[in-house]
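Researcher: Here's the sequence for the chain we discussed earlier.
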Amino acid sequence: MNKSLFNGTGVAMITPFRKQETVDFFKLESLVSSLIEGGVDYIVALGTTSEAATLTASELSAVRECIVESVASRVPIVLGMGGNNTQTVLDNINHTNFDGFSAILSVAPYYNKPNQKGLYQHFHLIAEASPVPVILYNVPGRTGVNIAADTTLQLATDHPGKVVAIKEASGNMSQIMQILRSKPEGFKVISGDDALTLPMIALGASGVISVAANALPHDMSAMVKLALKGDFKKAQALHYKMLPLMNAMFEEGNPTGVNALMEIEGLISNTLRLPLVKASKTLQSKITALYNEYNQ
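Model: Thanks. This is the structure I predict for it:
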């Protein structure tokens, strides 16, 4: 695997919908271009931020193809591919065309709350089946289960070159440091929390898979590049500039907040699919005020 792959800023792309809740492929193409022009290093297609759980099989296929065609090999693409039925994930892997994709991002099984042995076996089988490298995704606030550091390290050790990274969104800095301290060479720890990206890079993380970068690609990419170069003074200035917006974006869940900001920027029509709904008027007003302050 290319040593620089998955360094820097990845962006967990939203799915733009029209007001009729159909996928807006024109906006999707435009968003891809704006992200690449904004300096992001790679794109994550159909992750949890994309509302993939509400897309039909034909929509998933069409969004996947649209992103590959729009990216046109300019940056690597990671494909979100996870679930809480291991066999279904394996079947999806076996029936997917991975042309144009550099890796998959596989979230921990949600709702059924497997123990660490179950998590290990789930990802072991995914790693065995996947024709491309696997990035683990630990987000216990959404899945109800935490991938322990020992489980992550065991998967990385047992599958060199195949389980290549983890997107860590546990918010547990002690756990994250344990992984960073003991990980095998070449295994990468990627921030899954926009607001924790800077401190995680200072501890050895390779970058971020960012939600905020959908709306703020230039500043997020610049901050990460500066931090990876060790210029923490300039990176810190950008971090604190973005921090109020980053925090506000997640007050009512994801992608509710980032969609609200992207509508303010004129990038999308702010339409979500149930069970998600638009940001409240209070949050919309707050994000508007913060964005105006951000641009002063």
